[in-house]
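Molecular record:
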Amino acid sequence: MSTLPACPKCASVFTYEDGVLLVCPECGHEWSADAADTSSDTKVIRDSAGNELQDGDTVTVIKDLKVKGSSAVVKIGTKVKNIRLVEADHDIDCKIDGFGQMSLKSEFVRKV
């Protein structure tokens, strides 16, 4: 008996073959059996200059950013260390000295 790989999206073990595709009955995800080992559904997040960002990178803010709900402004040139990438509209979670925990858009930062 052959064992099929778990679903790459929801990790369900109840996958089945449908022609040349593998199908997950729980989430409905379909993928190629040939690409099962090499497929990655992770989104590549890039900064304003097109450099690929990764968790733990240090970035610089390239534009004055207003802080929502406050009169404070994150100034241009502010260095942000140890960023964390997330799947959301604001795709960077970070901690900025003097402001605390924040979410930033990758289009307003540049990798150092």
